[in-house]
Amino acid sequence: MGKFNQIDIFTTLPAHMKTRLTVSLKQRDIDRAKRRAKAKGISVSKMIEEIFEESEPAVSITETQGAAQWLLARLKQAKYTQTKSDSDLIHTHVKRKFA
Questions:
Q1: DSSP class of residue 79?
Q2: Which backbone phi and psi does 92 adopt, to 5 degrees?
Q3: ∠ CA 50-52-58 to the nearest 5 degrees?
Q4: 3-state secondary structure string, 76-89?
Q5: What is the largest CA-CA distance in the chain?
């Protein structure tokens, strides 16, 4: 097995904060990462951030969307009820009202 070296990468926390992450890689992989980042004109850290941003876009949902998702899940679990046509519903209503 090849020798591993360490490369330090900064990961993004809340928008303005970063923390250090140490990753162990083979020297050839470190060199490849540095060359690729240099070719893009960015740091290795930024290149890693972009990889994760592309593969897992941050999606936040509103409270209303969360409630809608919850309701849809509940409706999928609900027992099926037979539906009636509008004319049948009107007929039933009129019959009850004027009976």
A1: P
A2: -65, -45
A3: 100
A4: HHCCCCCCCCHHHH
A5: 91
Whether the full predicted model's pTM is greater than 0.85, yes or no, is no
DSSP assignment, residue 14? S
Which tokens belong to 37?
């980042």
Per residue in 8-36, pLDDT (tens digit) is 665 555 656 778 888 889 999 999 999 99
CA nearest neighbour of 47 among 58, 33, 59: 33
Cβ contacts of 34 within 8 Å, gap of 6 or more: 44
Q: Tokens representing 62?
A: 């509103």
Q: Which amino acid is at 92?
A: T
Q: Which amino acid is at 73?
A: A
